[in-house]
Design brief:
By secondary structure, the chain is mostly helical. It has a domain at 237-341. It is built from 20 helices and no strands. The longest helix is centred in the N-terminal third of the chain and has 30 residues, at 30-59. The termini are close together.
Length: 377
């Protein structure tokens, strides 16, 4: 967004001076009120204007853009800018009304993997904790290309970004969860767990845990599909976040089996492998330096909780004094397997964006039109 001449630094200082609590509040003068409202309105109008310009570019056929010298890198930069704008929930919802949502979803099928990946990131921002935009994306058939990219795109980054978008799209969205099941989403998740990419594994494990919490009836399906064996394997991953996510999922399954009166938490072969993995983690924890032990606090608690859920006894971490270290709060409860997944990303107001940011000074990618009507931002 080009510099519109507004004194944003002055506006910020003025706002802080009137809201920092160090001075008694007072009524604004009519002149101050008018200046403030005009400044904010001008910024909002500029954001909408810029989003319309970006929408125009997204609607333009790829061959036309190429003929005008627009590169895939230009499109990526444009999508970066759009993502900044839709961090505002109002702007996210307005994208559909100005005609930008459908062409954005079209970019999920772009021939360039980086554009497919970036488009999924923008969709994630739009739908995260936003029921209205979740519904709009579902109605615009946005779930299908996301699912296709997650399940079978040749680029693992595209698959990972698509999974992130799906996770945000179906969270708190029952039609979305139903669509995920019908699209054989669990099979795609199982495939993701077998990937060698730890970011892909982490996102898959986090979504599995969410689905297990939301649908206890799916626990049996998860077990029948062989997820426990994969999660047991990943519980000894070199990546701490993958280990913890695996342990959380296994603990969810173990507690559900226990509450349901099941004599066996997992199939017999998996039970033996799980014991070996947990014993290996206990041994590994015992060899950690103090700083590493402190960083692995949640893993220590997860290992002990899972051991107790499976074998009805505390793990040896307690006897070794490794479950609660000196100085740690012994009264802290075991980790909540519900976790704090998919925590809402902070959505910045579009009006707070600084007009001096280089990323907001991009020219309109199409360049001047024949009638001179589209020139810059």
């Amino acid at each position: 967004m080009a510099n519109d001449g507004l004194d944003w630094e002055g506006l910020l200082k003025w706002s802080l001076a009137h809201s920092d609590g160090t001075k008694p509040s007072r009524n604004l003068s009519e002149e101050e009120r008018k200046w403030f409202m005009e400044a904010m309105q001008a910024q909002t109008v500029d954001v909408v204007k810029r989003m319309k310009e970006i929408t125009l570019v997204m609607k333009t056929p790829e061959d036309v853009l190429q003929a005008q010298g627009v590169t895939p890198e230009n499109i990526e930069d444009m999508l970066d800018e759009l993502q900044e704008h839709v961090e505002s929930i109002d702007m996210a919802n307005d994208l559909h009304s100005i005609g930008g949502l459908v062409p954005l979803l079209g970019y999920l099928k772009n021939s360039h993997d980086r554009i497919r990946s970036k488009a999924a990131e923008v969709v994630t921002t739009i739908v995260q904790n936003n029921p209205k935009s979740q519904q709009l994306v579902m109605e615009a058939n946005g779930f299908e290309p996301l699912m296709a990219n997650f399940a079978s795109d040749p680029d693992v980054t595209v698959r990972t970004k698509a999974l992130g978008a799906i996770s945000s799209l179906i969270r708190g969205n029952k039609p979305g969860i139903a669509a995920f099941r019908l699209a054989n989403g669990y099979a795609a998740l199982k495939d993701a767990l077998g990937s060698e990419d730890v970011r892909f594994q982490r996102k898959a494990l986090n979504l599995i845990q969410y689905l297990l919490r939301e649908n206890s009836s799916d626990h049996k399906l998860i077990t029948e599909l062989g997820f426990p064996r994969l999660m047991i394997h990943l519980a000894s991953s070199d990546d701490p976040a993958v280990r913890e996510a695996s342990l959380r999922g296994l603990l969810e399954l173990a507690r559900d089996a226990k509450s349901g009166g099941s004599e066996s938490t997992f199939p017999e072969a998996d039970e033996e492998k799980l014991r070996q993995v947990l014993e290996g983690r206990i041994a590994g924890i015992g060899e950690m330096a103090r700083d590493d032990l402190e960083a692995a606090r949640e893993e220590r608690q997860l290992v002990d909780s899972l051991w107790n859920a499976c074998y009805n006894e505390p793990s040896s971490l307690r006897a070794k004094g490794l479950l609660v270290l000196p100085g740690e709060d012994a009264s802290q409860p075991p980790p909540d397997v519900a976790g704090k997944l998919f925590e809402p990303a902070m959505r910045a107001l579009a009006a707070a964006s600084s007009s001096t940011d280089e990323k907001q000074q991009k020219p309109l990618l199409l360049g001047p039109a024949n009638n001179g009507g589209n020139s810059g931002s």
